[in-house]
Every structure is written in structure tokens, then in C-alpha cells.
Write a structure and sequence with these properties.
globular, alpha/beta, 9 helices, 5-stranded parallel beta sheet, about 210 residues, 7 strands, Rossmann fold, 2 domains
């Protein structure tokens, strides 16, 4: 019986360092020219920072906390975050995608293996530009999740919702502190991929998973 693969997206299906460096240069250049809008850059910085903190119900509260700090509306914060965190990265993701991993995932899915995507950030548009084949995707905005990894609530929900068996499910990510600990909490076997280019470890997916 084939395994179910649950994959993280950011940093797993593409090399995050390249995207971060490119986006950092893009942000610096943009706000150097549009210096009167520098508050937007601070909003983005705080958004990233607050997402890393272990705050209860952060997915619900993140925009409210930042809006209050900078005396703007929650809708303004959401707009800025959506532009720079969701929309603009779509233009460069294909450059930094892990072609080998995505090909193996696509082959696995085409051969009737189940592929589920689970990310802290929205997935649909990113998966489209990366040309990833999958069965279903989830992220932290799902009404039954609303938490960030390594909180196991989301992964437990996915397991229950899809009637998955722990012994037949693997979690693949790029961060032990988030993906690894989340998988451990749900008693899943997991693979943590290196974050950098030319990953030394790769995955062979047939009727089982091995690391070479």
C-alpha cells in the first residue's frame, strides 16, 4: 500500500533562502524610492516577527495586534501583507523551486499516491505557479485549523478528516522546530530536508520512502 505524503510548502517545495534574499532586495529598493511609505515595511517586519511567537490564537489576532500598534485598519494590514507575502513572491517562486522534488511528488500523485499540502501560509496560488500536483491542501486560515505549526491541531485535523493511518503517512518539511515537532506530536514519521541549494539528501518515492 502506498504512503500518504503530507508536505510543507514554503522552504520545502522551493528554496526559501533564494526567495527571501530576492524579496529583501525588492523591498529595500521599493521603499527606498517610496520612503514616505516606510511604515508599510515596519508592518511587514512585525508581521513576520509576530508569526514566530507562541501567542494563543495568533492567526485570529495577528492583524488586530499590528493594526493597533501602527494606528491603521486591519484591512490595510491585510492588504500590505497580501501584496508582499502572497502576491509578489509568485513572480519569483518558479526560479527557486526544487525541480527534482516536485517531479517526484508529481509522479507519485499521478501513480495514485495521495499528496496533501499543509502550510502556515496560503497555498493555492503558490502550488499553481510551482506546478505541483496534489489531492488537497490546507493552511492556517482553514476554519478548523487557525493555528501555526508546531501546534499539532492542524495536522491532527488533517489526519482525522482524511482517515489517515499514522503508519502509512509521512510528513515532509524543511524545519524540525515546526514541521518535525508537529509530526512528532501526531506520531508520524517525517523527513526534514536541508534548506539550501543542491540538497545532499533526496527522496525516492515508490511504494515506500527512503532517504539516500
Amino acid at each position: 500500500m502506498k504512503k500518504t505524503l503530507i508536505l510543507d510548502l514554503d522552504g520545502t517545495l522551493y528554496y526559501q533562502l533564494g526567495v527571501q534574499l530576492t524579496m529583501g532586495l525588492w523591498l529595500a529598493f521599493y521603499y527606498l524610492i517610496h520612503f514616505w511609505r516606510i511604515k508599510e515595511l515596519m508592518i511587514l517586519k512585525d508581521y513576520r516577527k509576530i508569526r514566530e511567537q507562541k501567542i494563543t490564537d495568533i492567526v485570529e489576532r495577528q492583524f488586530k495586534i499590528i493594526a493597533k500598534k501602527y494606528n491603521v485598519t486591519e484591512e490595510e494590514v491585510k492588504k500590505i501583507v497580501n501584496i508582499w507575502m502572497n502576491q509578489k513572491p509568485l513572480q519569483i517562486l518558479p526560479i527557486f523551486k526544487d525541480k527534482k522534488l516536485i517531479k517526484m511528488i508529481n509522479d507519485y500523485q499521478e501513480n495514485k499516491g495521495q499528496v496533501i499540502i499543509y502550510s502556515d501560509y496560503p497555498t493555492i496560488e503558490k502550488l499553481a505557479v510551482l506546478k505541483v500536483k496534489y489531492d488537497i491542501s490546507y493552511d492556517s486560515t482553514h476554519p478548523k485549523i487557525r493555528v501555526l505549526k508546531p501546534d499539532s491541531k492542524g495536522l491532527n485535523y488533517i489526519i482525522k478528516e482524511n482517515n489517515l493511518k499514522q503508519k502509512e503517512t509521512y510528513f515532509i518539511g524543511d524545519s524540525f522546530s515546526k514541521d518535525g515537532k508537529c509530526a512528532q506530536s501526531c506520531d508520524l514519521e517525517y523527513i526534514i530536508l536541508p534548506k539550501f541549494f543542491r540538497r545532499k539528501k533526496h527522496i525516492i518515492i515508490k511504494n515506500k520512502i527512503e532517504i539516500n
